[in-house]
Amino acid sequence: MILRVVLGAALTAALLAVTAPALSTAQADAADATVERQLSALSERLETMVATDDATLGRGARRVTAIRLPERTQTSAGVSSLRFHSREGVGVASWRVGDASGHRERLVGVPIRPAGGSLKLREPGVHRLAFGLRVRDGQTVVTVRRLAGTADRPGRDG
């Protein structure tokens, strides 16, 4: 009887040791796929805005979108941060899934400039963002700013 209990406990521990890395990978993949789907749709909208609208010095073309950052659950590793910025003259989004290394995706062929400095989303949930097509220092750029929303908290952009 004791042998069965010890054997059962050893077998359970071995199964957990084998499945834990696979579960962790599946959770990270789920969160990453959620963000990638949203950013692909956003990229299409921004590229269309740049191609069809005129950049202005003041208010002009604008697209409002909602981005949902997945929270950490049994099926998702969660997204710990999402940031919009420029790299090598194009607009990109960078995000981090759980504690893993970061990911980056090109969004639009012009620089992205967050209004009021940097914009980093950290809280899980829905974040409403406004993207505008502007002229800054003689260059066409896409600006981004946070709108009020369920997960948004003022002063947490840094």
**Helix-residue proportion:** 25-40%
Rg for CA atoms:
21 Å
Structural class: alpha+beta
- DSSP summary, beta strand count: 8
Which descriptor suits the 3D outline?
elongated
What's the pLDDT, averaged over the residues? 81
Number of helices: 1
- Approximate strand percentage: 35-45%
Oligomer: single chain
Largest sheet: 4 strands, mixed
Question: Strand order of the main beta sheet, please?
Answer: 1-7-8-5
Distance linking N and C termini: 59 Å
Order of helices and strands: HEEEEEEEE
Low-confidence stretches: 152-158
Explain the overall architecture.
The protein is α+β, with helices and mostly antiparallel strands and 158 residues long. The protein is built from 1 helix and 8 strands; from the N terminus they run H-E-E-E-E-E-E-E-E. The strands form 2 sheets. A 4-stranded mixed beta sheet has the order 1-7-8-5, covered by helices on one side. The longest helix has 51 residues. The C terminus is likely disordered.
List keywords for this structure.
158 residues; elongated; four-stranded mixed beta sheet; alpha+beta; 8 strands; four-stranded antiparallel beta sheet
Question: Quick summary of this structure?
Answer:
By secondary structure, the protein is α+β, with helices and mostly antiparallel strands. The protein has one helix and eight strands; from the N terminus they run H-E-E-E-E-E-E-E-E.
Could you give the topology of this structure?
Layout: H1 2-52, E1 62-69, E2 79-87, E3 90-97, E4 102-108, E5 112-114, E6 120-121, E7 125-136, E8 139-147
Parallel strand pairs: 5-8
Antiparallel strand pairs: 1-7, 2-3, 2-6, 3-4, 7-8
